[in-house]
Fold:
Amino acid sequence: MEHIVIIGNGISGVTAARHIRKNSDKKITIISSETPYFFSRTALMYVYMGHMKFEHTQPYENWFWEKNNIELKQAFVEKIDTKNKRIFLKNEEVFTFDKLIIATGSKPNKFGWKGQDLKGVLGMYHKQDLENLETLAPDNKACNRAVIVGGGLIGIELAEMLRSRKIPVTFLVREASFWNGVLPAQESEMINKHILDHHIDLRLSTNLREIKEDKNGRVSSVIIEETGEEIFCNVVGLTAGVTPNIDFLKDSDIEIGRGVKVNRFLETNIQDIYAIGDCAEQHEAIGKRRNIEAVWYTGRMMGEALAQTICGNKTAYKPGHWFNSAKFLDIEYQTYGWVFSERNKKDNEVYFQWKHPTENICITISFDKDTRKFLGINTFGIRMRHQIFDRWLTENKSIEHVIEYLADANFDPEFYKLHEPEIIKKFNLENKTNILYRKKSWQRIFSKV
Amino acid sequence: MKRIKQFGLLLFLVGLTAFIATTFTGNFSLNQKELDNFLEAQNYKNEHIKGALEKAIVTDKKLTIFQFSSRVREAYKSANNHYYQLIEKYDSEKQWDKKGAQYQYLIFGKPHSVSFNIAKKAGKGFAVNNTLLAWFFSFGLGIIGALLFIIPDVILLGKPGIKNDGIFLSSATNRGWIGWFAFVFLVTFYILLYFYPDYIVNWVFLVDPISKFISGNPASQWFLYGFLYCVVMVVMAVRMYIKYRHNKYQILRTTSVLFFQIVFAFLIPEILVRFEKPWYDFKNAFPLDYDFFFQWNLKELINSGGFGLFILVWGIILTIVIVPLMVYFFGKRWYCSWVCGCGGLAETLGDPYRQLSSKTLFSWRLERIIIHSVLIFVLVMTGFALYTFFYGADQVLGIKTQTIQDIYGFLIGAIFAGVIGTGFYPIFGNRVWCRFGCPLAAYLGFVQRFKSRFRITTNGGQCISCGNCSTYCEQGIDVRAYAQKGENIVRSSCVGCGICSAVCPRGVLKLENGPEKGRINPTEILLGNDVDLLDLMNKK
Structure:
């Protein structure tokens, strides 16, 4: 029987395993050193915050793996012998495979800061980071202040985590406004304010020079590049993005760039070896996506696609329209299609924006000013229906169409105030149009193309 | 703010202690005249009871309620014993007529309930003489303290939004010692309420003035329970309003259950009593209202003229027309989490414990077996009851209707619905009864699963499997399992509380009453992944 070995038990590897099992009875082994069982990485923050216990982050009960005949092996892979199809584990055990799936995900970036490996410095990515944080920052007595370096999604989540235990947080962000490489100014500014409202000491346009240690080899303070200011702290969170976790492949003949190089079928340069998820790097980017996509759901989709290939139905990884979501403290964010920040958008792309006068609710819709084609939408504090935007993007709907039928796409809970009439009013005013508000229609929502 | 909270907690604990301490206060005895009045009102034919009670409780001694209760129960037992001996005697002599004649002298009723009735007349001391003061120190301080503990959260919780911080780090909400203490307290309370009402007669004295004001009658232990139920719901609803102040669905839903509890379950029935009509809760549908078709109830309704008949017809229409029709349009949530009293308590008092419900496959299996067994039990029992009513026979197939009714009343009505249903909140989550025991939930569930417009819609590929939804599902549904597949959630047990949607950090879940078509949508490939679906289908 063909033996499929998967390195990594994150969403990509596990999805691949599950779908291979769905479609075949191949022998499957998942190797991971991080945890015995699959858990949802995105939920780690809620464990520290006390919203959940670690068990709750595990989508499958522990008996699931044995019942589905998926072997789990908790071990660290040291290197791979591609010629003889062998894997060397750290405990000197050797494993053979017929097909190998590399799904090792990523690890936090470190940019060679002085003191970046001190005790008290951590990323917020692995289960071990969580355990570290629990010992280093159990409360605001053991940790008088934490400094977070890097202004992405993990950074703001880490800040939220620490604030849930009343630990003072200084948040160093390189950009002039939070996440403004991705978000339009309107949104970015709203988030800046929201971060401050949560009593997080947000420092924009600020870089880290070095991390200083105390006499016990623990973090004692950080020095800011621009001002030379010293901020005393017990914990430093490094959240300046992630890189593929592929150090163990450096000496193998698998082609790597920043990640493991793969083609559209997720195949590496070596036959029968594949890479999926955060650690896979496309030779050429798909559409406007990046070559390496460290996004939860793309890992899932790669796992699904590769499982098809391995089970004899060769399937390319073809992600559909871009979408994503996040939560900035209390503000939910969803995006469908492409809305680039002012910095990155093309000349023909323009925004239509609306913001609630008092609440943290706003939208930006990006469209082509010549063809009027709808390109994408960012929503903050309003939930939208994925299915509708996916269809509108496929059907190349115009901005006017999107505005007119926006209520169909609203996914807020029942009884919530609808903002569509105001949004339409503003659009009409700015564009000298006369679009009328259309109530939500089930018929339209469920009509196929 | 923190200080106010601590002070509130302190006041609450003082109130709680005063409440508990009240049971041990006062003394109980009757003088001759009071006993005579009581016996006259009771109209016993038993000739021995007078002497027995005189010896037991007409005394100058300061009896505690426990001594008093034990004396009363002894007195009843000895008074009945005389006739039991006669029954035995005539039985062995085969003098059937004489034997049968003795039964009229026996005094029936549960010993502690009989004792409660006398204790209600016999109480003296603090709770009786200073009702208002005693009420203030127990109920009053409890309410004020709880509110002072809850209200500062408006500020302490920070900006509106889901704040479940520290729930699993707290002893009260993660089965720590506070949780276990609450468990012991609640279970004890229910055991006393259902089985030893005489021991808590002092509590009942505290609400006598309120009962007299509403219905004109002195309070029973059920009035006490109803009043306490409303008080607890109001206080905990304030907590709900603060915690979910960003969420209109939760605010409306909380207001609705509060309204139905106070007006329909508490005030209307009591006011009906004032107008000498049968006590009836118009929202309480059979089979949750399991004794609706019992002989005594049917007789009472029929004997109450036009109004009784109206109740009878309403009860039947509610069950066979309104309930399934509403479930078709709105799912069982319209009842379970917008109207029902049990649901109301679960959603207010029980909200802090919702994360403790078990989500294992094992408990799902158990749940389906138990809840459907209860439904079958109640239907069989109702069959028996109706047979008894129409044909006058007191047994069917050799099984006494009364026996079945007693078993159900004890096991399901008291132990399951009360002791386990509410008492187990701090350990097994807040909907233990709704999930495992409620026959109406089973009935509504069938309709919801197979013929309804209600579902929880999942939002394409946005789910990140974080598990907040499953963790906070009070009904133990593994919501995430559906959400991560992009599959609508159509489950019998879902009560539509909407918390899964509220706690979702990615806006994946939405409670909807949409068209029936497409409601059940097993998905092969999640939205966002552009495989050629036709191609995939052909290859299958």
Chain B has a mean pLDDT of 91. The longest strand of chain B covers residues 454-458. DSSP finds 26 helices and six strands in chain B.
